[in-house]
TrEMBL record:
Gene: purK
Record: residues binding ATP: 108, 148, 153-159, 185-188, 193, 216, 275-276
Lineage of producing organism: Bacteria, Pseudomonadati, Pseudomonadota, Alphaproteobacteria, Hyphomicrobiales
Cited PANTHER family: PHOSPHORIBOSYLAMINOIMIDAZOLE CARBOXYLASE (PTHR11609:SF5), PURINE BIOSYNTHESIS PROTEIN 6/7, PUR6/7 (PTHR11609)
Superkingdom of source: Bacteria
GO cellular component terms given for this protein: cytosol
Function text: Catalyzes the ATP-dependent conversion of 5-aminoimidazole ribonucleotide (AIR) and HCO(3)(-) to N5-carboxyaminoimidazole ribonucleotide (N5-CAIR). Catalyzes the ATP-dependent conversion of 5-aminoimidazole ribonucleotide (AIR) and HCO(3)- to N5-carboxyaminoimidazole ribonucleotide (N5-CAIR).
Biological-process GO terms, alphabetical: 'de novo' IMP biosynthetic process
Protein name: N5-carboxyaminoimidazole ribonucleotide synthase
Family listed: Belongs to the PurK/PurT family.
Length: 368
């Protein structure tokens, strides 16, 4: 279904009620757009800033149809929605990103095969369906390696690190991941982790933010720094080119993030290896709210509404740092507010628990 250019006053439907949906809704309101959020949890953070809400399961066909009728375009804040949900919505209203892009990026094996098919470097990988398949994949790729479920994993969930010298019982390892279809990925000796957040319109216009450097703690993003340390002009150009090739091949509409490893050849030359694609606004792009001329959330709204994309340069050339507030760290909000130059974002979640993202803080630092 083609996307008309939407006017201010139109309604965006957002599937998913977490902090990403919340920040999309805030950006939409700045452009005079209305928002209807669909989520199964009655206490969803995005409901606080939405003009309309639907509380229903993602597989409720009747509720989905009514939701679609009430909006002009539909988007989603996370990729783990059922394929059937996307099909129901896209039959009634323009859905961006598309159901096809969602299907490609929901399955790690499909995604890796797609990226490799474009001639873009990835970690070596093998499909694993059972214990025998895992044993064969280990024999082929060696260790260390990471075994991941093909679907429904994020922030370190749904994966097991397999290390050399440690006993591996293939049956027990598969059982620990629910005996689900998996993918084994060979180890990439990377220097750092980086990502490119980019946007594409239905007309094929493309715009990307410069690569950012990411630091993880317990598999959860802890810190993002822009510009990304260790990247030179050649590796930066390569990362931006990779993001565009992926977006074009997906015929993507909206914001996406391509997570990559920065690696060095024996001669010291830096280049990138794709880790995964996130078909949505992304945690590593939160710095853009204060640090870029157009935030990733405003950019996503522009793209799905058929509007021109905004400028992506850093504000004043500042170095930008984004820190996630995970678990109890959000309780230090008063101290953060007292620090000059800090920009605090709290997501309105009712209860902090270990590993839960409660907010983030952005600092604009002097260039250099």
């Amino acid at each position: 279904m083609s996307l008309p250019v939407l006017a201010p006053g139109s309604t965006i439907g957002i599937v998913g009620g977490g902090q990403l949906g919340r920040m999309i809704a805030i950006a939409a309101a700045q452009y005079g757009l209305k928002v209807h959020v669909y989520a199964p949890e009655a206490n969803s953070p995005a409901f606080d800033v939405a003009g309309a809400r639907t509380v229903a399961p993602y597989d409720d066909a009747e509720a989905l149809a009514a939701f679609a009728r009430s909006v002009d375009v539909v988007t989603y804040e996370f990729e783990n929605i059922p394929r059937r949900t996307a099909e129901i919505l896209s039959a009634a209203r323009p859905l961006h990103p598309s159901a096809e892009a969602l299907a490609t990026t929901q399955d790690r094996l499909t995604e890796k095969s797609f990226v490799a098919g474009l001639g873009i470097a990835t970690a070596p990988f093998r499909a694993v369906d059972d214990a025998a398949g895992l044993a064969a994949a280990i024999a082929d790729l060696g260790l260390p390696a990471v075994l991941k479920t093909r679907r429904f994993g994020y922030d370190g969930k749904g994966q097991r690190m397999l290390r050399p010298g440690e006993p591996v019982d293939p049956a027990a390892v598969m059982a620990s991941l629910g005996n689900q279809p998996c993918i084994l990925e060979g180890f990439v000796p990377f220097e750092s982790e980086v990502s490119v957040v980019a946007a594409r319109t239905r007309a094929g216009a493309f715009s990307a933010y410069e690569p950012c450097g990411n630091e993880h703690r317990d598999h959860i993003l802890a810190r993002t720094l822009v510009p990304a340390p260790g990247m030179d002009p050649d590796s930066t150009a390569e990362a931006l080119s990779v993001a565009r090739r992926i977006a074009d091949a997906l015929d993507y509409v909206g914001v996406l993030a391509v997570e990559m490893f920065l690696v060095r050849d024996a001669d010291g030359r830096a280049h990138v290896v794709v880790n995964e694609i996130a078909p949505r606004v992304h945690n590593s792009g939160h710095w853009t709210i204060e640090g870029a001329q157009t935030s990733q959330f405003a950019q996503h709204v522009r793209a799905i509404c058929g509007w021109p994309l905004g400028a992506t340069g850093r504000v004043g050339g500042a170095t930008v740092e984004m820190l996630n507030l995970v678990g109890d760290t959000a309780g230090h909000w008063h101290d953060i507010l007292a620090e000059p130059g800090c920009h605090l974002h709290l997501y309105g979640k009712s209860k902090a628990r270990p590993g839960r993202k409660m907010g983030h803080v952005t600092r604009l630092l002097p260039p250099g």
